[in-house]
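call fold(seq) -> C-alpha cells
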Amino acid sequence: MFRQPVRTILLILLIAAASFIFVSNTAELIIINDAVESIGGYYREIAYLTLDGSNGISGNIYPGAQIVKSSQYVESEDRRRGIDSVLSGMANIDIAGMHALPNWKPDYWHYSDAFFYAALIGVEHGAMHWPSSIVFQTPGLPETQPYVQLNLRVDEVVTGYPEHIIEEQDLILKYFLSESEIEEYEALNIDSSAAEAALYPAIPIDDMIVGQRYFLRGAYYNQSFYDLPGSGLPEIGRISDPLDMRPLNERTLTEVNERYIEDDEIWYIPVDAGQSIDFSFLGMENLDEEIIRMSHAQSSMQLRTMIDMAGIPYMQPEANLVKLSDGRLIDTADAQSMNHVAVVSKYFAESRNLHLGDMITIFLPKEQVLSGIYDTGNGRVPNDLVLRAFPFERYDNTLELEIVGLYSLSSDAMLSNPLPGPGITYPYNVVYIPDSILPNDYVLTASTSFSNDYMQTQADISEYLPESWYSFVLADPRDESAFLNEVSGSLSSLGITAHFLPNNALVFWDSADPIVQGAKFNAITFSLVFLLVAALAMFLHYRQRRKDYAIALSLGKPRTKTRAQYIVSSIVLGLPSVVLGSAAVWFYVRNYGESTLMPLFEIENSSVAISLPFFCLPILVSCAFVLTLAMSALFMVLLTKRPLLDNLVNNKQG
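ret:
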C-alpha cells in the first residue's frame, strides 16, 4: 500500500469525501429533526369547552369533558379544582375591600374591617364632597357628607390588614353622619358652609373622651374608586388612609351580602389600659363570631389546582391575562411527583416579604361552598368561581408549600392607579398548586343562589365541572380537524362547543414538513452514494492488494494471517479517511443547518439553539467506518475464493 503513495492518498481522499457527505447529511437530518420538534413544541393545540347560553365561567361541561377524554387525539386534560383555604400567620392581599360608599350603602359586604384597641388623642370635623358623577349614579346621596374624625393611637390589633392598621401607630377613624343626622346637620347650618365652624347634631360618639382607651371597629373603603383625594391602595406604614367607623355589633354574612344590626348600635366600648373585652358583655355575644369570620376572610386564599400551567388557556401570551414574572410554572412532573410547590402572585409576595424558595403554610377547611363567580367583564383577570369555607370549623389538613413561581396579571397597572370596579385586589389571592397534592376528602356543595343562577342544570356536584376549570391539549396540532370531526356531533347534541386557541401551528408545519422531508431524502440518497464510493474505494484497494495476497500465500504464509493483514491494511486506509472526512462535519453542519432552518425561525419569531450532541459524531464515524470495512470484507471474500494463479495473472494483466 505504501509502495504506491499517490494511489493510496487518492483512496484516502475519496473515502474522506464520501464520509463527509454521509456524515454531514445524516447529522443535518438529526439537527433539523431536533430543531423542528423543539420549535413545534411551542405550538401546543390548547382548547376549552363552553356551554351554549352560559356565562363562559360556571356552565357545567362535565359530559363534554368525558367525550373529549375518550378521543384518540387528546394528549392531556386539565380538570382543575379549587377550595377556599386559610394562610397561617399572615394576611392575604385583598386589602381594597369591596365597592361601597362609606356608610351610605351598608348592605354591601366586604372583609376589610379592623377590630382594635386605641387611645383617643384628638377630634376633628370635616366633610366629604362627592363628585357629581357619583351623586348622579346614587339617588339620595348628598353632595356633601359631614364626618367627625377621631385621631387615635393604636396599642392592640385583634384583626385587620397591616396595610390598614399597625400597633403603636396613629390612625384616623372617621364617623360619617347617617341620613337622618345629615338632615339635622343641614337644618342647623343653613347659612354656614365651613365644616369646621358648623354645628353638629347629637351623634353616638359625642361622649368619647380624649385620653380614654376604647375598643373600636373600622372598615376600609378605597376612596380612589370615586376620584376622591388619595394615593392608590394602602401601604404598610402609611397612616394617611383613614378607616370608616362601624358599629361593633354590626354583622356581615358571607351568603347574603349584607350588614345588619339586630339591636341598638354600639360604636365603642371604654376599656382600661391592659384590659380586654369580654364578648359576652353588653349583649355582644355575636361579636366573637364576627371577629372570627373577619379573621378568616382576611387570611383566606383561593387554591386552584393545575396539572400543567403552561397548557392553561389564560396563561397563554395571546390571552394577556396571567404571565410568569419569576421562577417557574407548575408542570406535569410536579403533579406526578406530588411536589408541595406553589405559584403565587408577585403582588402578594412583595406585600408579605416572600421570595422564591420561601415556605407558606395553608390550612384546608373541609366544608366548601360554591357561592358565586368572579367576572370583572374587563378582560384584565381570569374569570373564576368563588368558594367560601366555614370559618368556625376545625382544619383537618395542612399543606406546607414552597414558592417556586410568581405570576402577575394584566391588571397590575391598576394597583398604582385603581379604576372603578369591585374587588380590585381579590384576584391576587389565588394560589396555584399541583392537583395531586390537594386531598379529595373535602366536601363541596353549592349554595342555593349559585345553583339557581349559574349551574343551569341541577347536576350532581360530583359531576359538576365548570367551563373555567377545564382545558385540554391535542397530541399534534395537525389533528385539529380530525378531532373536531370525531367529537363535534356528540358535543353539539349536548349544547357544548370546543374552542381552540389561535396559533400558527399549521403554517409552521406546512413550512417544516418539506424541510424535514428534504433532509431525509438527502440523508438516504447520500448514504447510498457513500456505499457506492466506499465500494469503489475498497475495489481499488482490492486490486492494489491482490498480488501481495497471492505472493504471501505462495510463500506458505498461513491463510488466516494473510487475511488479517488484508483487514489491517483496510483499517489503516479506512479509519483515517473516515475520521478526516467526519471531523470537518462538526464545524460545517451547524452553520448549514441553521441556514436551512432560518425560514422556521422567522415564522416562530424566536430562536432555537442549533446543536449536535457530541456523542452523535462518534456514532456516525463508527457507522461510516463499519460500512467501509463491510465493503472491504466483501472484496476479501472475493479475493480468497479466487484461485491463487488467477490473482497473480490478473494482477499482472491489470
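Confidence is low (pLDDT under 50) at residues 99-109, 224-231, 417-423.
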